[in-house]
Amino acid sequence: MTNTQPALKAAAAPVSPFGTNDIRALKPPVEIPSGWFWFWIGLATLVVLVAAWLLWRYWRKKKATPKPEIIIPPHERARKKLAEALELIGQPRPFCIAVSDTIRVYLEERFEFHAPDRTTEEFLHELRATMLLTIDQKGSLGEFLSGCDMVKFARYEPGPKELQILHESATRLIDETEPQPEPVGAPGASAPTA
């Protein structure tokens, strides 16, 4: 039994292709990159880092820059609100509230009157002292506000024709008081150069 054990151990050991168990073949030499290889790798890394930093700065600046606010002139906002008020023409009280509030806000924004927070009498009294509106416009505005107040406070129920006249009166006031662009030859306007 002792004679068979060493033979089994020798048969179980792996055999090298060279015929020995402990010596292996030499590996080919490992090529070491030149200094230029590392230079180009470093340069590429630097370019990527700088590009990432610039993109981050651009994104942060774009995010921090507020979007320009589009300023809509008072006469355009008033016209839009008057157009929306036409949907309420079947309901006299909400219609008159919407139309009169639109005109009051328009006059405050356009001429700096304090119309929305005053009664009609207070507002008309202040209006008489100003020269910003013509006498006809002041009279028309007084009639318009009085008509709206009749519906809002006296529970007067006008027909669609009367409400349409109120709406047209409000639109006409905006058309008449809308700021007009200066003509080309006006003082302060730049003259065309030849």
Question: What is the residue-mean pLDDT, rounded to a whole number?
Answer: 80
CATH third-tier fold name of the domain at 74-177: Four Helix Bundle (Hemerythrin (Met), subunit A)
Q: What's the tally of helices?
A: 7
Largest sheet: none
Strand content: under 5%
Task: Explain what this protein looks like in three dimensions.
- This protein is mostly helical and 194 residues long.
- The chain has a domain at 74-177: Four Helix Bundle (Hemerythrin (Met), subunit A) (Up-down Bundle).
- 60% of the residues lie in helices and 0% in strands.
- Helix 3 (74-85) packs antiparallel against helix 4.
- The mean pLDDT is 80.
Features:
single chain, 194 residues, mainly alpha, 7 helices
In short:
The chain is mainly α and 194 residues long. The longest helix is centred in the N-terminal third of the chain and has 30 residues, at 35-64. The protein has helices spanning 4-12, 35-64, 74-85, 92-111, 120-128, 135-153, 160-177.
Explain the layout of strands and helices:
Layout: H1 4-12, H2 35-64, H3 74-85, H4 92-111, H5 120-128, H6 135-153, H7 160-177
Helix pairs in contact: 3-4, 3-7, 4-6, 4-7, 5-6, 6-7
